[in-house]
Write a structure and sequence with these properties.
It is a single chain. The protein is an alpha+beta fold. The protein has eleven helices and 38 strands. Strands 31-32-34-33-35-36-37-38 form an eight-stranded mixed sheet, with helices on both faces. A five-stranded antiparallel sheet has the order 1-7-6-5-4, with no helix packed on it. Strand 24 and strand 25 form a beta hairpin. It is globular, with a radius of gyration of 26 Å.
């Protein structure tokens, strides 16, 4: 790999000075975010799909160095580079490691000298003649992933697993580092598939690329969690990829013991945090039986018992546990007015508040990395008008320095967002986010219920929302009852109330913002993905007087058919996935009439507005048949409907170029509906 020096600053600076106001006083940032040139109007939709430039910024364990991963090429012709800088002089000269025609997906420091880059390698394999034929088959592109260990001084690369030619032939993904082993600078722990299709855990030498296998899983194993370099949790997955089974093993033991099953896609309630205070204890995020909120707690590896909740919050599920470079617990992350931390260490809260003030309390400031001495922090900053940027916060230097941004978008030309408290028709209170178009002139409204439904919307950057706001439209995102993140009791208020209470909450949020903001109540549309797609269609069923267009992306349309599919495809031992959905949607054996009344497909004749349906052909979460039968029902009722199937795509996971084309179709439909 080629290493070069260059002196120009590669990222604009939003550096501010931290001022102390007396002994022991709280530090506060002075100055404000720097705007670029004066706004020249809203962005075109295509501007939101320009390629990402900065992909990551990472801090070495001691906090001495920073590496920034940049993608300078295009998707078809990538050019990956890593810029290196002295953390004590973040605006000074940078050195660059050229990776060549490679896309880089992830970057981290293995120690203070070597970096680990996960790269994507694409090779075109020529077509071959089948036996007995003179016709040459088509060529195909093979995509593989590898970890490259790089010396930050020389750029000398070592490809991990490079010497194992057999492994390279049958495994396309050798790019998973699970533990950097902070006390062993020459090794990391990695997972990789064995020749027989079973996952192995390996101790990898980052200097020569040679591996020693430590663990061998079973046919279902997808990974391990480690504490002090020892595997203590093992994760097995079902064939459908929806549920993982967690096993534990204390250091010194030989047998793995069952802990629990955890849903991966729908409302997971167990996750790894890091090591605990003793060798036989780890920290996890879990919702204990009978408790309302998910919290951080210690788990004893011998008894498998969960300890008392650590820093719990009423009516809020913990997002994740914050750890430092050595995986020591620093605090719990929650979502209140924005991203908030309850720190376990005194003094850190004041610094996080100062960072928030620097962004005028308008962004989520994620502490993505913390140096061992707690002096330097890498913050990933995202908000309604900030599409993502990395900053270095230096306590001793009293500075905040911009290291790089995902997109070149001026925050003053994006739509601002406010958090609303909505009073529902039955007296409950829910939260909703309302994004105004640039300039905030009254106009049409697009409602976007989230998916899940036991998920929630936050104030982060949402490309779909900003594309719609750029058209001069307001965008409403209600966290209706049945949403996740507010505790189990809040989610339960939506159970067996599909098509009813959850829809009413959305309608009440619409009525409030139309009234309070003076919006055009005659020009309202609704769109969403997954459950949000269902809510869009059910909204059109319930309120033909309100919605002028409905867009459903990978949405559920027939509840009875969806439940039957879940029951048929559930490969868990006790049909846990089906039971999860039966509890939340309804029981087909006793609730048939309710399920039919709440199924848009069964009520297609009640829809008046134009409908756009979009679905990935290979969707494993909501099968494509759900949109196909809705399309047939609408056409059978002589309704206006357009249907788009996306090949080689799953649950709304298509590439950016496809999303750009789809967004243009959404905008065209809404523009016609609002005309």
């Amino acid at each position: 790999m080629q290493v070069s020096d260059f002196s120009q600053q590669a990222a604009p600076s939003r550096r501010g000075l931290l001022l102390a106001s007396g002994a022991g006083a709280v530090l506060a940032l002075s100055g404000a975010r720097l705007a670029s040139a004066a706004p020249s109007g809203a962005y075109a939709a295509a501007d939101f799909f320009a390629g990402q430039r900065t992909r990551a910024a990472v801090l070495s364990p001691t906090g001495a160095r920073i590496a920034i991963m940049e993608q300078l090429g295009t998707r078809d012709e990538p050019r990956g580079v890593i810029d290196l800088l002295d953390a004590a002089d973040p605006e000074g000269p940078r050195r660059r490691i050229e990776l060549g025609e490679l896309a880089v997906e992830a970057l981290e420091w293995a120690n203070d000298r070597r970096l680990l880059a996960r790269v994507v390698i694409k090779q075109v394999v020529p077509g071959r003649k089948p036996p007995g034929s003179n016709m040459v088959g088509p060529s195909r592109t093979v995509t593989s992933r590898r970890i490259v260990s790089l010396d930050h001084e020389t750029g000398d690369p070592v490809v991990l697993f490079e010497g194992e030619r057999q492994r390279l032939r049958y495994s396309l993904d050798l790019g998973r580092v699970i533990d950097i082993l902070p006390d062993d600078p020459d090794h990391v722990l990695m997972t990789a598939w064995e020749r027989d299709g079973v996952m192995g855990l390996h101790r990898m030498n980052i200097n020569d690329g040679k591996a020693e296998r430590l663990e061998r899983g079973n046919i279902a194993t997808i990974g391990w969690q480690t504490h002090n370099g020892v595997a203590v949790l093992r994760r097995d997955i079902n064939a459908r990829g929806t549920v993982e089974t967690i096993h534990a093993r204390a250091p010194g033991e030989t047998e793995w013991r069952f802990v629990r099953r955890n849903r991966i896609v729908d409302a997971p309630d167990f996750s790894w945090v890091g090591g605990g205070g003793a060798p036989n204890a780890v920290l996890v995020s879990a919702r204990a039986e009978g408790e309302d909120v998910e919290t951080i707690r210690e788990m004893n590896l011998h008894t498998l018992a969960l300890g008392a909740p650590i820093q719990p919050r009423a009516d809020r599920d913990v997002l994740y546990g914050l750890t430092d470079a050595r995986k020591r617990y620093v605090g719990a992350a929650y979502y209140g007015d924005r991203l908030e931390y309850d720190f376990a260490e005194e003094g850190l809260a004041a610094h996080h508040r100062a960072m928030n003030r620097f962004f005028e309390d308008d962004c989520d400031v994620h502490l993505s990395q913390i140096s061992d001495d707690r002096n330097r922090f890498i913050a990933y900053v995202e908000g309604p008008r900030e599409p993502g940027a990395w900053y270095l916060y230096d306590k001793a230097a009293r500075s905040m320095t911009n290291l790089g941004s995902r997109y070149a978008l001026d925050f003053e030309r994006l739509g601002g967002c406010e958090l609303l408290s909505v009073r529902t028709r039955d007296g409950a209170l829910i939260e909703a986010y309302l994004t105004a178009p640039p300039g905030a002139a009254p106009g049409p409204l697009v409602v976007m219920p989230h998916g899940g439904p036991e998920a929630r919307d936050q104030r982060g950057f949402d490309r779909q929302v900003q594309v719609l706001a750029a058209q001069g439209w307001w965008v409403l995102q209600p966290n209706f009852r049945g949403s996740g993140g507010y505790g189990l009791a809040f989610a339960q208020q939506g159970w067996r109330r599909w098509g009813e209470r959850m829809q009413e909450d959305v309608e009440d949020a619409v009525a409030q913002v139309v009234r309070d903001k003076g919006l055009d109540g005659g020009r309202v549309a609704i769109m969403g993905t997954s459950y949000g797609g269902y809510a869009a269609l059910m909204g059109a069923v319930r309120r033909p007087d309100l919605y002028k267009a409905a867009i459903s992306i990978c949405g559920v349309t027939d509840l009875s058919d969806m439940l039957a599919w879940e029951r048929r495809d559930d490969d868990t031992p006790t049909k846990e996935v089906y039971g999860f959905w039966k509890k939340r949607i309804g029981d087909p054996d006793t609730d048939g009439a309710m399920l039919e009344a709440a199924s848009p497909r069964r009520r297609a004749a009640d829809i008046v507005c134009p409908v756009l349906l979009v679905h990935g052909v290979d969707d494993g979460i909501v099968p494509v048949i759900q949109s196909r039968i809705m399309n047939s029902a609408l056409r059978g009722s002589r309704k206006t409907v357009d249907y788009v199937e996306v090949p080689d795509a799953g649950h709304a996971d298509w590439a950016d170029d496809v999303e750009k084309e789809l967004m243009e179709r959404y905008v065209a439909l809404l523009r016609t509906a609002f005309a």
